[in-house]
Amino acid sequence: MPRLLLFLAILGVAVIIYALIDCIMSKRHEVRSISKPAWLIIIILLPLIGTAMWFLFGRPRSAPPGPGRPARRHPTAPDDDPQFLQNLETKRRQQAREAERRRKEQELKAREAKKNKGAEDGDKGSGPAAPGNAAGPVQGQTNDDDAGPPNTDAGRPQGP
Question: Looking at CB atoms within 10 Å, which of 20, 29, 47, 117 has the fewest?
Answer without folding.
Answer: 29
